[in-house]
Amino acid sequence: MPRTIAPEIIRRALPIFTNFLIRDDFDEELAIEEFARIAPNPSTGGFLTADEYVMVRRTGSAFVMNRASRLSVYAAFENALNHAAVEIEVA
């Protein structure tokens, strides 16, 4: 079952998430592609759970990822959400 959070947090999380993955030696294109898989419709604030995300089909992706890599990407997504929420709270 997808989870939800304020859409503004999801929007702010994208650049943070991208920076986290680039820091961890992932490609920027991969970061954007994976963000879209985790949060397919950011305007609703909906996003997948970790279990749902690792099960998503990656047909057509130029990047091969194993389960451990996907879980690492998901952890970066959760961290990006937390950072985005703090940015909004402080602003």
Count of domains: 1
Strand content: under 5%
CA distance, first residue to last residue: 31 Å
Provide mean pLDDT, rounded: 93
- Number of strand segments: 2
Cα radius of gyration in angstroms: 12 Å
Q: Sheet with the most strands?
A: 2 strands, antiparallel
| Weakly predicted, low-confidence segments | none
Task: Please render the helix and strand layout as text.
Blueprint: E1 3-4, H1 7-23, H2 28-38, E2 46-47, H3 50-55, H4 67-90
Antiparallel strand pairs: 1-2
Characterization of this structure:
- The chain is mainly alpha-helical and 91 residues long.
- The chain has one domain (3-90).
- The protein is built from 4 helices and 2 strands, in the order E-H-H-E-H-H.
- The protein has helices at residues 7-23, 28-38, 50-55, 67-90; strands at residues 3-4, 46-47.
- It has a two-stranded antiparallel sheet.
- Helix 1 runs antiparallel to helix 2 (28-38) and helix 1 (7-23) packs across helix 4 (67-90).
- The model has no long low-confidence stretch (mean pLDDT 93).
Characteristics of this structure?
91 residues; mainly alpha; two-stranded antiparallel sheet
Concise description?
The chain is mainly alpha-helical and 91 residues long. 64% of the residues lie in helices and 4% in strands. The chain has a two-stranded antiparallel sheet with strand order 1-2.
